[in-house]
Amino acid sequence: MDPMTTQPAPSPRRTLLPVLSGPCAPALRTRVLASASELPAAPVTGAVALEINVQLLDLGDGAYCLNHALRQRQLYGGEIVRGAFEAASAGRAPESSALRDALVEHGFVVRPGEAPEREHRRLLEAEDTRVAGDPSFTLLRILLTDICNLACTYCKVIPNVDSPITDATSPERLREVIRFFFTYSEEERPKIIHITGGEPTLFFDRIELIVRSAEEFRRPRENFWFVLGTNATHRGVGAPHAARYASALEG
Fold this sequence. Notes:
Layout: E1 19-20, E2 49-50, E3 54-60, E4 63-68, E5 73-77, H1 79-89, H2 97-105, E6 109-110, H3 118-129, E7 139-143, H4 171-183, E8 191-196, H5 204-217, E9 224-228, H6 239-250
Parallel strand pairs: 7-8, 8-9
Antiparallel strand pairs: 1-3, 2-6, 3-4, 4-5
Helix pairs in contact: 4-5, 5-6
């Protein structure tokens, strides 16, 4: 199997999506760091090593995803990807030279003598030197609700929320954040309003409110787009709703 081949999406009814163990696992724990100097230095060795924040996800049916949480990159494949992960975890170079070169190129693996936390440290150092200024937003992401009409076991929302929001964000709060978004942005910069959940179409009236509010607060020369994160299965969105929502999202 070609290690770079994207695998079919897993079944929405899978019971498990385990993370395979490895020396990178402790680095996946989170805590707030005041500066790059607080980031612990990972051991630098004379062998290849995984960058921190790299994990291997077992997708089932012999398919795996090598995920880099900081670089937001994924590599999909079969047993050859799992074997490469286990080899790098043990300080050995993957047997496939092409795969080894790809892992180095995309930042999953560091060469001998390189710091495994290099990307994490680079991001923190960039944040340390950032000069605070007036915000100019270009993306507004609205988490409308936590609930959904499906129960996909791989969903990242419900398992990571202690008290899921079972109602939609209030109309007053939605108008407040949309007004703030346009107020603290530059008119000439293109913008995106991303509506997601949960399943946002369960509360279609709030989607319509978001569209109306954005049109109300936009300025004359302002261009913006809506992106709707939906599973597209909610039967409550009938033809009249669908027509209005397609029209709103297209223009």
